[in-house]
Automatic annotation (TrEMBL):
<feature type="domain" description="HRDC">
    <location>
        <begin position="212"/>
        <end position="293"/>
    </location>
</feature>
<dbReference type="Pfam" id="PF00570">
    <property type="entry name" value="HRDC"/>
</dbReference>
<keyword id="KW-0540">Nuclease</keyword>
<dbReference type="GO" id="GO:0033890">
    <property type="term" value="F:ribonuclease D activity"/>
</dbReference>
<dbReference type="GO" id="GO:0000166">
    <property type="term" value="F:nucleotide binding"/>
</dbReference>
<comment type="similarity">
    <text>Belongs to the RNase D family.</text>
</comment>
<keyword id="KW-0963">Cytoplasm</keyword>
<comment type="function">
    <text>Exonuclease involved in the 3' processing of various precursor tRNAs. Initiates hydrolysis at the 3'-terminus of an RNA molecule and releases 5'-mononucleotides.</text>
</comment>
<dbReference type="InterPro" id="IPR051086">
    <property type="entry name" value="RNase_D-like"/>
</dbReference>
<dbReference type="GO" id="GO:0008408">
    <property type="term" value="F:3'-5' exonuclease activity"/>
</dbReference>
<protein>
    <recommendedName>
        <fullName>Ribonuclease D</fullName>
        <ecNumber>3.1.13.5</ecNumber>
    </recommendedName>
</protein>
<keyword id="KW-0269">Exonuclease</keyword>
<dbReference type="GO" id="GO:0003676">
    <property type="term" value="F:nucleic acid binding"/>
</dbReference>
<keyword id="KW-0819">tRNA processing</keyword>
<dbReference type="Pfam" id="PF01612">
    <property type="entry name" value="DNA_pol_A_exo1"/>
</dbReference>
<dbReference type="InterPro" id="IPR002121">
    <property type="entry name" value="HRDC_dom"/>
</dbReference>
<dbReference type="InterPro" id="IPR010997">
    <property type="entry name" value="HRDC-like_sf"/>
</dbReference>
Length: 385
């Protein structure tokens, strides 16, 4: 198997790939010790069975530029095929502000084609390609060089089998007329907002047990400081301080280094230097926040008056529809959205786009009393009223 280590080699492969209808793509990266993913390896393949049709690209090789690959990503005549693409796309967006277009994600397509929720690559290889995968190199340090032959074989299999998986799923979608379903789902993956983390919004990911405005103001400032520090120093946010320490600090509101030293949950490294100074500044800023600028938790759904009987009927309808259509139920509507519909909300994803075709339209008719559900043996049927 060939490993490309120069820009010229990568350009030659991308020129060849541009003559084909699609190219399969995967990456290996590390993120345990950094905020941003460290790209360690790229796997590429296009249709064929020759030894030059699938390659590894070493982005750590001295002097190599990934611009030939990014030019291929911009070529809308070639479909770029990934499996579970989100983390891969984030790497390329952060590195070069580029998204592969057009994009095809086999995990999303598999959910549309009836392979269940969050269909894994190994499952698709087994069911579609009829082969197994050697996963012995799954947990490995991809930044170390040289790579072993076992590592290279493992990595390359992630794009060679992907060719048959893509061809099978694309044909199934064409046959069923559901290609636009997948395209609609993938829009969020090529939206810059998906990967744009705003420090002032980071507090919303922190789980708390109180909705006190003053407490949340301190949480907001601490979470914003942590995010900015983590981004600037390229370290994981939990290496700055963890969520439980953040909540403790928001409760105790230390004003001095001595008070900060009394924290039970704060890492030793965070009790001094720039992190300690940032914590004290964030706490002071949160404490001085005027009430009119307090953050507010979105509790709107908690106050919904859910009709439990209607919610149960919606679950039965969803199960009937997904079984009939062969689509993963989770892809259409999570349980919380069904409760929201039963409470009268209509700004719910399940009621728009392709989901409306499959489930949403009948869900609304069920809520309006225009249809009912009846058991017919092992199946559930929609009955006009």
């Amino acid at each position: 198997m060939k490993t490309l280590t120069t820009t010229e080699e990568l350009q030659a492969f991308c020129d060849a790939a541009a003559q084909h209808p699609y190219v399969t793509v995967d990456t290996e990266f590390l993120r345990e010790r950094t905020y941003y993913s460290k790209l360690c390896l790229i796997q590429l393949a296009f249709a064929g069975d020759g030894e030059n049709d699938a390659v590894l690209v070493d982005p750590l090789a001295e002097g190599i530029s990934l611009e030939p690959l990014y030019a291929l990503f911009r070529d809308e005549n070639v479909v770029k095929v990934f499996h579970a693409a989100r983390q891969d796309l984030e790497i390329f967006w952060v590195d070069a502000s580029v998204f592969p277009k057009p994009l095809f994600d086999t995990q999303v397509a598999a959910m549309v084609c009836g392979f269940g929720e969050q269909a894994g690559y190994e499952t698709l290889v087994r069911k579609i390609v009829k082969q197994g995968l050697d996963k012995t190199s799954r947990f490995t340090d991809w930044s170390r060089r040289p790579l072993s032959e076992a590592q290279k074989t493992y990595a390359l299999a992630d794009v060679t089998h992907l060719r048959k998986i893509y061809e099978f799923l694309a044909a199934e979608l064409e046959k069923s007329g559901r290609s636009h379903w997948v395209a609609e789902e993938l829009q969020v993956l090529t939206d810059p907002a998906t990967y744009d983390i705003q420090p002032q919004e980071a507090w919303q990911r922190v789980k708390t047990r109180t909705n006190s405005g003053k407490f949340l103001a301190v949480v907001r400032e601490l979470a914003a400081f942590r995010e900015i520090y983590a981004q600037s120093n390229n370290v994981p946010r939990n290496r700055v301080f963890k969520d439980d320490a953040l909540v403790e600090l928001a409760s105790t509101k230390p004003r001095t280094a001595a008070e900060l030293g009394g924290s039970r949950l704060l890492l030793r490294e965070a009790r001094k230097g720039a992190i300690a100074e940032g914590i004290l500044e964030a706490v002071a800023k949160g404490v001085s926040c005027p009430p009119e600028k307090f953050p507010r938790l979105d509790r709107s759904r908690e106050k919904l008056q859910v009709n439990p009987a209607l919610a149960d009927l919606l679950r039965v309808l969803l199960k009937a529809k997904t079984e009939a259509e062969g689509v993963a139920a989770k892809l259409i509507a999570p349980s919380a959205d069904l409760d929201a519909i039963a409470a009268g909300l209509r700004d719910v994803p399940a009621l728009s786009g392709w989901r409306r075709e499959v489930f949403g339209a009948d869900a609304l008719r069920l809520c309006e009393g225009k249809i009912g559900l009846a058991a017919n043996g092992q199946a559930v049927q929609v009955v006009e009223l």
